[in-house]
Amino acid sequence: MSIKIAQRIVIFTGAGVSAESGLSTFRDPEGIWAKYRIEEVATPVAWKRDPQKVLDFYNARRRQLLQVAPNMAHYALAGLEEHFEDVRIITQNVDDLHERAGSTRVLHLHGELRKVRSTRYPELVYPWDDDLHLGDLCERGYQLRPHIVWFDEEVPLLPDAADLTRQADIFIVVGTSLAVYPAASLAYYAFEEISCYYIDPNPQVNWEMRRLKNLKIVAKPATEGVPMVVEELKKRFNIPA
Ligand code: APR
Average per-residue pLDDT in the chain? Predict the structure, then answer.
């Protein structure tokens, strides 16, 4: 087995990394939020007012997720684990395409579409690939809900993501509009001298990213930009192609 480079690479991804797999982004002109209203499908108030509508929304997205596959960007990121000791993905995505591509350490800031949890006991989380219905209950008899962090809800894994980012040697941001806080604040925790890449065809550098002195913007789709950056890192650390 070859020796791995002792670097921590933290990769922060958004909907753009999965766009070329066929999953819509949120804020592009054809995005999900152009077709649905956030307040009707992705908040605790929506769930209280019309849970069926919320379930319909996530059931449709879960069905779609089961029909798509990882793309070259997911695979290129997973491939970093062959060469670098500590590769962490922090994703805002609720899909599991990073895992299916082979990434082993993935933190889902906004939850996971293929899981559901108890509305009463949030620690009761279950894998779930079918439609979720009203009347589907946890083992203690309470309604199940999508395992998703909705707008107006706390982001429980943010402190863990911030800790990972503080220790990063290299920070790579892919396919996110950096518009939704607190997730979009993640770059704030990175040491300002580290090397950083932002891969997005329409990059929107927020002030937290602007702090980073060695920020390189790669204004390309993920399937082009990510393999390019991976090649650049391999060259930098003398890893044979
Ligand atoms: N490759 C890379 N990036 C792309 C591609 C592509 N092929 N196509 C589009 N993008 C970029 C867009 O330019 C945009 O910057 O992906 C980004 C998508 O931004 P959003 O739709 O805002 O998605 P994201 O940043 O992940 O949203 C954050 O908002 O609605 C919530 O909870 C949801 O996790 C989501 C959060």
Answer: 97
